[in-house]
Amino acid sequence: MTTTAKTNHIGRKISRIRELRGMKQETLAEELGISQQGVSQLENSETVEEEKLERVAKVLGVSKESIENFSEDAVFNYFNSFHDQSAFNTHCTFNPLDKFVEAVEENKKLYERLLAAEKEKVKYLEGLVSKK
Q: How far is CA 51 from CA 58, 64, 107, in A?
């Protein structure tokens, strides 16, 4: 009885991470200084040279080890583990209208302070002019 092990296809992992990051092949190609066809070949390669893998990882914003150990199952398990809906609170805990009224009141107070400061400046300048 033989079992076949899943191969560690680095190219597919690069492709999937790129897709999850919302990056197109053209963008990755431009960042790496290669053609879009070069990225396509890279993503179809089962293995990738260490140096190139490090460059790809840097562009994707992950570590080389993250690419090597990437598991799509782990990604989905991570996101599916959010059973506590309190992390995604969709209910407003304050009255937006109250917040708006508070903001208007604060702006009114600020305006009044600025107006008073300008009146003081005018009074001061008028005093200087009248002395001459």
A: 11, 10, 57
62 in the same domain as 115: no
Single pTM value for the model = 0.54
In tens, the pLDDT along 21-30 reads 889 999 999 9
Beta strands in the chain (DSSP E): none
Residue 103 lies in a domain: yes
| Same domain (yes/no): 75, 120 | no
The answer to whether 46 and 9 have CB atoms below 8 angstroms apart is yes
Question: Domain containing 118: what range?
Answer: 91-132
Q: What is the pLDDT of residues 104-123, one digit of tens each?
A: 999 999 999 999 999 999 99
